[in-house]
Automatic annotation (TrEMBL):
It comes from Apostasia shenzhenica. The keyword Transmembrane helix applies. The chain crosses the membrane at residues 6-24. The gene is CYP75B1. Keywords: Membrane, Monooxygenase, Oxidoreductase, Transmembrane, Transmembrane helix. Its EC number is 1.14.13.21. It is an enzyme of class 1 (oxidoreductase). The lineage of its organism: Eukaryota, Viridiplantae, Streptophyta, Embryophyta, Tracheophyta. GO terms for molecular function: heme binding; iron ion binding; monooxygenase activity; oxidoreductase activity, acting on paired donors, with incorporation or reduction of molecular oxygen. InterPro entries: Cyt_P450, Cyt_P450_E_grp-I, Cyt_P450_sf. PANTHER family: CYTOCHROME P450, FAMILY 706, SUBFAMILY A, POLYPEPTIDE 4, OS08G0547900 PROTEIN. The keyword Oxidoreductase applies. This is Flavonoid 3'-monooxygenase.
Length: 349
């Protein structure tokens, strides 16, 4: 090849590349036009510098400007925020399979590696099996009844801990930069992934120890008739590997502790600020339970005022106001707007 023909080929390749980029940008532009409206944001950072500490409040104010389905760029991530029951229905009822996957946070990817668990597993046979175990064996009526005495004991401990902490008050707000700039996620810039991995390794060891002790107890003929025994029997009868249960138990511990304690703290805070309603709740507790014992689960149907307090607390202060973000596995349409594959979809409950 002569110098001139080489130069010509290079010029043609460069021109083709420029045309390709221009076409790509145009196509992308067209696709963007089908996206729901939303704030423009800054190059590279998107709207990240403007977000409020209370993300759901910020999204509520944007929804009043852009409508119940709006798009927003946070870092390099395209997010769609949904604030109407009708649009949420389109996602969770009409297109539940396409939207079944959660967005796996950068920190969770650090401890999960190639393995997965109920909360982050992609929709498929493994997820279905983990979910069946959680719903049938752990959260089902029999499973819940089997551990009622344990729950009662834990409630006693929690009340004691609340009493001890009554004078303390602190808030922690941890956001991971890596969730908005996936390119830097492997570097774990804030060390949250490493911290979470250490915590999960500790929890793994703790649960392994429980499994180990129970295996030995079962081998010596002990019977417990509880959730753990059901799970161990499933493993022994050739069911899933024990690690599937460990990850399920980890999820349930994670999913149930912070949510419940946040709700209790808010209920208490609201009642402390409203002495009339606090008195009403006390009156009902005195009438139904009396002063000589703790509340039992069987009292709940009679505690109608307290149940209303709980519902109102969850309405005013949902512990996970944006739920766990979902990620469509195919290009979808919600309220007539395009939601491309991989978008982070948040429901502002
Ligand atoms: C006030 C209490 C609670 C609130 C507000 C709450 C809220 C939530 C939310 C918003 C999700 C994500 C749903 C989604 O976007 O797909 C979730 C998932 C989950 N929660 Fe709860 N939760 C609470 C208590 C509990 C408790 C007590 C348990 C277990 C004993 C539990 C177990 C789970 C599990 C296993 C998942 C994952 C389900 C899946 O991905 O299929 N939660 N919860």
């Amino acid at each position: 090849m002569t110098y001139d023909s080489g130069k010509e080929a290079f010029t043609v390749a460069l021109a083709a590349f420029i045309v390709f980029i221009a076409l790509f940008q145009r196509l992308k532009g067209k696709d963007r036009r089908r996206l729901s409206p939303g704030p423009r944001g800054l190059p590279l950072l998107g709207s990240l510098p403007f977000v409020d500490r209370n993300l759901h409040h910020y999204f509520t104010s944007l929804a009043s400007k852009f409508g119940p389905v709006f798009s927003i760029r946070l870092g390099s991530k395209l997010c769609v925020v949904v604030s109407s029951p009708a649009a949420a229905g389109e996602i969770f009822r009409d297109q539940d399979v396409a939207f079944a996957n959660h967005v796996v946070p950068a920190a969770a990817r650090f401890y999960l590696g190639n393995s997965t668990d109920l909360l982050w597993a992609p929709y498929g046979p493994l997820w279905r099996m983990l979910r069946k175990i959680a719903v049938r064996e752990i959260l089902g009526v029999t499973g819940m009844k089997a551990v009622e005495p344990l729950r009662r004991e834990e409630i006693r401990r929690m009340v004691a801990a609340l009493e001890a902490q009554a004078t303390e008050g602190s808030a922690v707000n941890v956001r991971n930069v890596a969730d908005f700039f996936p390119a830097v996620a492997p570097l774990d810039p804030q060390g949250l992934g490493r911290r979470l991995r250490r915590l999960m390794e500790w929890l793994d060891g703790y649960l392994d120890g429980i499994f180990e002790r129970r295996r030995a107890a079962m081998a010596s003929g002990e019977k417990h008739s509880d959730v753990l025994e059901v799970l161990m029997e499933l493993v022994q009868s050739g069911g899933p590997h024990e690690s599937a249960f460990t990850s399920n138990l980890q999820d349930i511990i994670g999913a149930s502790t912070d949510t419940t304690s946040t709700a209790v703290e808010w209920a208490m805070a609201e009642l402390l600020c409203d002495q009339e309603r606090m008195k009403e709740a006390h009156r009902e507790l005195d009438a139904v339970v009396g002063k000589d014992r703790f509340v039992r689960e069987s009292d709940i149907p009679q505690l109608r005022y307290l149940s209303a307090v709980v519902k109102e607390t969850l309405r005013l202060h949902p512990p996970i106001p944006l739920l766990v973000p979902h990620r469509p596995t195919s290009d979808c349409t919600v309220a007539g707007f395009s939601v491309p594959t991989g978008t982070t979809v948040m429901i502002n409950a």
